[in-house]
Amino acid sequence: MATKVKSAFVCNDCGADYTKWQGQCTECHAWNTLSEIRLGSPARGGKTLRSGFAGAVDSAVKTLADIALDEVPRISTGTGELDLVLGGGLVPGSCVLLGGEPGAGKSTVLLQTLCKLAENHSALYVTGEESPQQIAMRANRLGLPTNKLEVMAETSVETVCAIAEQKRPKILVVDSIQVMHMEEVASAPGSVSQVRESAAMLVRFAKQSGTVLILVGHVTKDGSLAGPKVLEHMIDCSLMLEGSSDNHFRTLRSHKNRFGAVNELGVFAMTDKGLREVPNPSAIFLQRAEEISSGSVVMIIWEGTRPLLVELQALVDDSHLGNPRRVTVGLDQNRLSMLLAVLHRHGGISVGDQDVFVNVVGGVKVLETSADLALILAVISSFRDKTLPQDLVVFGEVGLAGEIRPVANGQERLREAAKHGFTRAIVPAGNVPKQPIKGMQVIGVRKVTEALDAASC
Ligand code: TYD
Ligand code: MG
Questions:
Q1: In DSSP terms, which residues pair with 156 in a beta bridge?
Q2: Which residues contact residue 24 at a Cβ distance below 8 angstroms, ignoring those fewer than 6 apart?
Q3: What is the pLDDT of residues 274-314, one digit of tens each?
């Protein structure tokens, strides 16, 4: 019987797949974006279950306890912040996706890391965007060791896999996945089907050979990786390098990690000598003005496995618009609207006729709710034009009933603040430590009104 070649239809914009062609993608609602891709031929064999697999079942199915655990040593990248985000280093046979906007510094951070790693581990850097000369020039300019790292300019995945098969590097970097292509896929490089098939082949090679695969991926304007859905389930660890061009700090965050904590944050600074790691990020985000103005407060957020002290600023000003503005940078705008409603209902303070702007200093994006209390105090401080004490730190979640809810890792947050010289903290009552923290006066609060009293606002 002739084997039927299976095909699927994939949306070039969002990566959703369908068994039949249709004019509009039901996921992203784009028109005419579906293209056909051929799937690999079905597995051959055709043994009946009863006869063919009877013996195989015993060897294939095991309890977890029977599986031998080989402790695979992680490969340290030599950069503390990168190791931290990876959860302790690179795991052999794992696939890491490094995403970021063009110009974020993905190629730079990989070149710096790989040049040093190549001293002890064989490494191959496949470049599809820059020429080997450009890479060599950059490595020389940055003063990196250049005699060990092997570089190849190639965009064909088949060739990359064939060469990697012979050379067997321990670490393989492909910069970037969007320029890679496979002969047997008909669509253009960068399309979802090319990205998906190319990544699948590279990942297969990495898993079979135990190579660490690092894929570079460009993000689109809205911050998602091109073809995000198709890549995310294949890889083990997805890192995102973020930062704006007007700011020389770059943050590296893990969005998915099968071998460590997610949302771990590493901080780098882009200098004329490449990317430098910033081992104590709280110190840089806390460079406050000599004279503190109203609307500024320091909050303690939790990033992955460590606390981070960041300044939050609010500006509340008379609005001339019928619909006053609610603008946030680094925070969720809906959260701001919600907290302003709580403040009105349970704190008796209305800012309905005011524009409210909130900014997290240093370009940090805050994803957790422990910033709620800081946000409320910053808004009130600006509204009343009353400065909050310079040595005050704040954290805590605010509920819709105006209650202040405890957050995780309260002790560690307070200890970090004490390390940086803060002496007063307003925190949820549930987070007040049983043992006092040296040099720190901790005020526990249960309601928004109590928090306002504690901050004398
Ligand atoms: P690059 O690593 O090429 O970005 P990506 O691979 O993510 O597209 O980084 C390029 C940017 O970094 C560019 O805007 C210049 C800046 N840069 C420096 O400021 N200093 C340096 O030493 C290097 C190498 C780059
Ligand atoms: Mg690049």
A1: 181
A2: 30, 31, 32
A3: 888 887 778 777 777 777 889 999 999 988 777 889 999 99
Q: Is 67 helix (H, G, I), strand (E, B) or coil?
A: coil
* β-bridge partners, 265: 253
* Higher-pLDDT residue of 231, 177: 177
Residue-range domain boundaries for the chain:
7-44, 75-279, 284-454
Q: Which two tokens stand for residue 39?
A: 């799937």
Residues marked as binding for ATP?
100-107
Q: Report yes or no: 324 and 211 within 8 Å, Cβ to Cβ.
A: no
Pocket test for ligand 1, best of 270, 273, 275 (most atoms within 8 A of CB): 270
CATH C-level class of 284-454: alpha beta
Task: Examine the pLDDT at 39 and tell me if it is beyond 70.
Answer: no
pLDDT number for residue 52: 53
Which atom of ligand 1 is closest in space to residue 104's alpha carbon? 7
Output the CA 254–ligand 1 centroid distance in Å: 20
Q: Which atom of ligand 1 is nearest to the CA of 241?
A: 7
Give the C-alpha separation, 86 to 94, whole Å. Answer: 11
Does 168 have pLDDT greater than 70? yes
Contact residues for 271 (Cβ-Cβ < 8 A; gap 6+):
248
Choose which residue among 98, 108, 131 to substitute to test ligand 1 binding: the one with the highest number of ligand atoms within 8 A of its C-beta: 108
Residue 229, pLDDT score: 58
- Measured by CA distance, the residue closest to atom 9 of ligand 1 is 105
Q: What tens digit of pLDDT does each residue of 203-231 get? A: 999 999 999 999 999 886 655 555 555 68
For the beta carbon of residue 394, count every other beta carbon within 10 angstroms.
30
Q: What is the separation of C-alpha 333 from the centre of its chain, rounded to a whole number of angstroms?
A: 20
Q: Give the residues surrounding ligand 1 with Cβ less than 6 Å away.
A: 100, 102-108, 138, 142, 270, 272-274
* Pair 356, 336: CB distance under 8 Å: yes
Specify the residue for token string 């990697």. Answer: 164
Looking at all shown ligands, the one closest to residue 242's CA atom is 1
**24: number of CA atoms within 13 Å, CB side?**
5
On whether the CB atoms of residues 414 and 425 are closer than 8 A, the answer is yes
Cβ atoms of 356 and 324 within 8 Å: the answer is yes
Structure tokens at 281: 């990020």
- Mean pLDDT computed over every residue of the chain: 86
Determine the topology of domain 75-279 in CATH. Rossmann fold (3.40.50)
From residue 22, give the alpha-carbon distance in Å to each of 4, 17, 197: 22, 11, 22
Residue 243: enclosing H or E segment and its boundaries?
A: none
pLDDT of residue 278: 84
Which ligand 1 atom lies nearest to the CA of residue 111? Answer: 2
Query: What pLDDT was estimated at residue 445?
Result: 96
